[in-house]
Input
Amino acid sequence: MRSHWSNRWAFIMATAGSAVGLGNVWKFPYMTGTNGGSAFVLVYLLCVALIGLPLMMTEIMLGRRAQRNPVDGMAYLAAEAGGSRWWQGVGYLGIAAGVLILAFYSVVAGWVLDYGLRAASGSFAGMTGAQAQGAFLDFLADPFELLFWHSAFMFMTMLVVAKGVTSGLERANKIMMPGLIAILLILLGYSLAVGDIDRSLDFMFRPDFSRITPGAVLSAMGHSFFTLSLGMGAVMVYGSYLQRHVSIARAAFYVVLTDTAIALIAGVAIFAIVFANHLEPASGPGLIFQTLPIAFGQMPGGTLFATLFFILLAFAAWTSSISLVEPAVAWLIERHRLGRARAALLVGGLVWLLGIAVLLSFNAWSDITLFGLNFFDQLDKLTTNIMLPLGGLLMALFAVWVMRAAHAQEELALNECNYRRWLFVTRYVAPAAIVLVFLNLIGLLPLV
Ligand code: PFF
Output
């Protein structure tokens, strides 16, 4: 008998715990910065509403119906609908994406842990922009420090994964997310008081289509998958631990709303600090590590708030990481009859090794590039922009073209009108949008 969430809230908190993470606080602001601001935000929001929400429902629905890990689950659902066994490839694609994402995610989570310690030592007090930037670059140049923190984070993640779904995941999820929201609101309050909030809002929300490029559209769509943990079976495997009577639509709605709100709050707060301190919005993955120390260093009680902030962010990253490996671990347990601890060790070991290559790409191996991108960027682009949207596309197509309508309807338990809406979006709108963005990127469709 598989274990299940103890109630609806446990599922919502766990799925929100998966969705809310570095994607919201670290990646969303830096991507918005490097992609020119408002047009990126607009496309991201459109993708969240038009693709993200219905696909979140779809993934939960597939998982709960299958009651299995994503590989066996897709095979089972395909068999039930008389479809091909090849559909289990969607599960394998997801397992691979999860492992590859965690390889860079864990390295960045390691930065967060290190910054938590720096914050606690009071080293942000009175920091200038140049000092914050210098400190971050020095940190990146030291592979041993990066390795230490990456290893620490992987150890934390695999420990919880090894303990299993109900005991490990649930407890961890319930306390820290409200804490993260509270501290982000404090940061926003600070930005409202002393940051350049007008320019921040302008940058993020005043539509400026001159800055939109095919690459930015793809990144915005990819990011909507990344931030909602969609397209790789993480939500599917969490859905498979969900009891029958819970409303999927409502759970999905809460998760999407929480995730989006947190990203927007983080973005507005961070850009207000960026503009007030004449920093560069497009400075890339180091953005929050180069801006937040300045803000916390000036704020009353900054040492305490900064420490709490980085601890809570590390926690949010932790709950996301757990979901990144859960598809692989569940598959090893259910298909290959491995014990949970051994499965966790195997997957964790692989991710840890890949992570070493990622952290070296910031220093010793920074010269090794392909199309001008280092290994970190390669992994990020491959997973976020290609693997996740592709996985999501296949899941959507499977749910509406292969699965029996009666089965989907029974799981989703929507009224007729909402069911038709879900069907329309999942059948036409979401697949068409994903395919158009892909075609546009490879130049077959010069839309923008
Ligand atoms: N959604 C997480 C974040 O925004 O940080 C990252 C993530 C977790 C992506 C789980 C994909 C996934 F399956």
Summary: Residues 8-414 form a domain with the Hydantoin permease fold (CATH 1.10.4160.10).
